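Page 42, continued from yesterday. The earlier attempt failed because a stray header line got pasted into the input along with the sequence. Redoing it now with the clean sequence only.
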Amino acid sequence: MNIENIAALAAQLHSLGFENLSSSILKRISFRPVNFLLFQRMKKGNDQLSFHLYFEKDNKENAYSLQYYDATLQNAAVLVDTTVNGVNIPELEKKMAEIDWKTSFELDNKKQWSVTDKASWEKELKVESAVEELEKLESSDDGKVVAASIKIKYWAGMPYQELVGNISPLKSKSEVSQRFYVSDGQPGISVDEAYRFLQNRWWEKQMQAKKKQAEISQTGENENDSQSSSGSGLLKKKRFGSGKGAKKNKTVQQ
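This time it went through. Structure tokens are written below.
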């Protein structure tokens, strides 16, 4: 095992802003994979960042290198401070925050528990209670939006789809992603720099959405005005035609 390589990778990641990954690198390299991914989540203000770091092996050098990382910004959703479908949103958020979801989604991890010892399955009871309230939320269209926002906030980057389904449509509206490559001899893009870049992407995305909505509204108004004008023209023409017809009939009678 190339310990110097592992130490160098850990130092590189630390300089970029990724901390406490040396043990994860050591464990993965011990299996001698051709390549591997590391996942890390961070919080910046009210925003959630998730990273997938891709490493590849150079067989000639017997060493691994960081090739790139994918960064995703999950913009903090503004959740209503009220009750929806009988579910108190602030209380549900508190429940969600108290649960270690990373551990909860690791379904293959085994633990000792006993039917008679409630403490040994109390965590699972909390998970069931939170998921039950999410299901209540999803009984209406408005509630579905709130439920999906909560899932994105607490489950982004985790293998939740096997259990709770796909929420990609809403994710695309509430997050932005970018891949940052790492070149040999170059310092690389730090976590803080990636965050600023993604923030700019997010603001740009919001501005484009507002512009598109304004264009849709303007198009609708123009269509209504056009239909209204066309209707008035036809009405005038009809009235004009009716007048001529009436005059002609009068002449025939004479």
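Notes: The first helix runs from residue 3 to 16.
Reminder to self: strip header lines before submitting.
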